[in-house]
Design a protein that fits this description.
Helix content is 64%, strand content 0%. With 245 residues, the chain is an all-alpha fold. The protein has one domain: Chorismate mutase, AroQ class superfamily, eukaryotic (Chorismate Mutase, subunit A), CATH 1.10.590. The longest helix has 26 residues. The two termini are 20 Å apart.
Length: 245
């Protein structure tokens, strides 16, 4: 129980989320140096050799197949985009999992938002021929976004244990709007947005000083959190709590 409690401590959750900020920031800066390259998201767009998948789907699928073999998706904070993955080749690991059993996985929504909204938001339109580099960075960023968004389960469990009477009542009545209001902390959200904006500004200045570097507007990282990451994280929190009976 102590290890589970440590996992749900506010300090531990904050440390995990702050580390993911660095991961996402670097992913954004790397992807933004290339154009949108829409062909890499089109099923069959780069040839029949990929079995009808787009280039990004193919690379993501292959990555998840490899990672599944070494137990990545047996960890409660990891969620695959594909479900036809092989069993691990390593012995089973025992994790301290404080979460209730649940079926929440919104990677389909994350994928749709990423391809349809986030890439056009971060990247200049057009095709620069950098298909492979763009797709590799897409896989990196998609997996980081998925982990950050689904970490809402741990946030929700921590909040529920801290205020059980309030949350139990909302859960029993299936009050999704009430739960969303309960999990919302405007002050914390502002602090997150300000922190990622500062980090992005710092890294952007460093990259802009390097010849030949093209970087995303540092405000884009703040907007990425405000428009997609935080809202979808709260969606995960609410969905998880509604299943937590």
């Amino acid at each position: 129980m102590t290890e589970q409690a440590d996992t749900l401590s506010l300090d531990n959750i904050r440390n995990v989320l702050v580390r993911l900020e660095e991961t996402i920031l670097f992913g954004v800066l790397e992807r933004a140096q290339f154009r949108q390259n829409p062909v890499i998201y089109q099923p069959g767009g780069v040839g029949r050799e990929l079995g009808g998948e787009s280039l990004v789907q193919y690379l993501l699928h292959e990555s998840e197949r490899s990672h599944a073999k070494v137990r990545r998706y047996t960890s409660p904070d990891e969620h695959p985009f594909f479900h036809d993955l092989p069993a691990p080749i390593l012995p089973a690991a025992v994790y301290a999992n404080p979460l209730r059993p649940n079926t929440i996985n919104i990677n389909d929504r994350i994928w749709a938002a990423y391809v349809g909204e986030i890439v056009p938001f971060l990247c200049a339109p057009g095709d620069d021929g950098q298909w492979g580099s763009s797709a590799v960075n897409d896989v990196y960023l998609l997996q980081a976004l998925s982990k950050r968004i689904h970490y809402g389960k741990f946030v929700a469990e921590s909040k529920c244990r801290a205020r059980p009477e309030q949350y139990d009542s909302l859960i029993r009545s299936s009050d999704a709007d009430g739960l969303r209001e309960a999990v919302t902390d405007a002050e914390v959200e502002r602090a997150v947005l300000d922190r990622v904006a500062r980090k992005a500004a710092t890294y952007s200045r460093e990259l802009e000083a390097m010849p030949g570097q093209s970087v995303a507007d540092h405000a884009a990282v703040r907007d990425l959190y405000a428009r997609w990451i935080i809202p979808m994280n709260k969606d995960v929190q609410v969905l998880y709590l509604l299943e937590r009976r």
